[in-house]
Amino acid sequence: MESLYDVQQLLKRFGIIVYVGKRIYDIELMSIELKKLFEARLIDQETYLNAKNILVREHRIEESREDQ
């Protein structure tokens, strides 16, 4: 897993499709859904941490775009 698209595909496997309309909000909602999957033990810790790191990175990128 290397990109936001990969995280979206992971969530899609569980029937979770996120589209709010603004990319930063999508990332935040994906993070919430990812945490719920992990807490329900539907994904392992390695998958969770990898996906979470991707979401954190993408969130920072979006924040820097909005600041400009």
Automatic annotation (TrEMBL):
InterPro entries xrefs: YqgQ-like, YqgQ-like_sf
Entry protein name: DUF910 family protein
Native species: Tetragenococcus muriaticus 3MR10-3
